[in-house]
């Protein structure tokens, strides 16, 4: 699984800011009122979040996300293991309650 396969499905969604798009890391900003559309696409690829917004992160969640900025109570974490890598995706809501940053990473095993 490649991150590009997922990001290609975002083409119909409005991206406010493209911060980084590489083979192993993606960082995009979108409007929070569209979070359900983003959530639906990520769930199709990565299944339901392993840590929903409002749930305390587990030790495993903290270790898994350590190299990509960690994970907090107000953030959502998706994860799926593939043959050669694990893909994680995180929703980071902004304090302005308008924007959300999506961070995705391909973690090579």
Name the poorly predicted regions.
none
| Overall 3D form | globular
- This entry's quaternary arrangement is single chain
Number of strands: 5
Order of helices and strands: HEEHHEEE
First-residue to last-residue Cα separation: 13 Å
Percent of residues in helices? 10-25%
User: What would the average pLDDT be, to the nearest integer?
Assistant: 96
Structural category: alpha+beta
Please tell me the total number of domains: 1
**What percent strand?**
25-35%
- Spatial order of the strands forming the largest sheet: 1-2-5-4-3
In DSSP terms (H or I, runs of 4 or more residues), the helix count works out at: 3
Task: Give a short summary of the structure.
This protein is of the alpha+beta class and 109 residues long.
Name some characteristics of this structure.
109 residues; alpha+beta; 3 helices; 34% strand; globular
Describe this structure in words.
The chain has 109 residues and is α+β, with helices and mostly antiparallel strands. The protein has one domain. Helix content is 22%, strand content 34%. The protein has helices spanning 3-7, 35-46, 59-65, and strands at residues 17-21, 25-31, 76-81, 85-93, 99-108. The chain has a 5-stranded antiparallel β-sheet with strand order 1-2-5-4-3, with helices on both faces. It is globular and about 35 Å long.
């Amino acid at each position: 699984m490649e991150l590009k396969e997922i990001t290609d499905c975002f083409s119909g969604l409005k991206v406010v800011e493209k911060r980084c798009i590489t083979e192993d890391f993606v960082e995009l900003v979108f409007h929070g009122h569209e979070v359900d559309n983003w959530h639906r696409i990520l769930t199709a690829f990565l299944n339901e979040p392993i840590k929903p917004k409002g749930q305390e992160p587990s030790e495993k969640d903290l270790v898994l996300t350590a190299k990509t900025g960690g994970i907090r109570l107000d953030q959502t974490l998706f994860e799926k293991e593939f043959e050669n890598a694990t893909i994680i995706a995180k929703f980071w809501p902004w304090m302005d309650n308008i924007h959300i940053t999506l961070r995705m990473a391909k973690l090579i095993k």
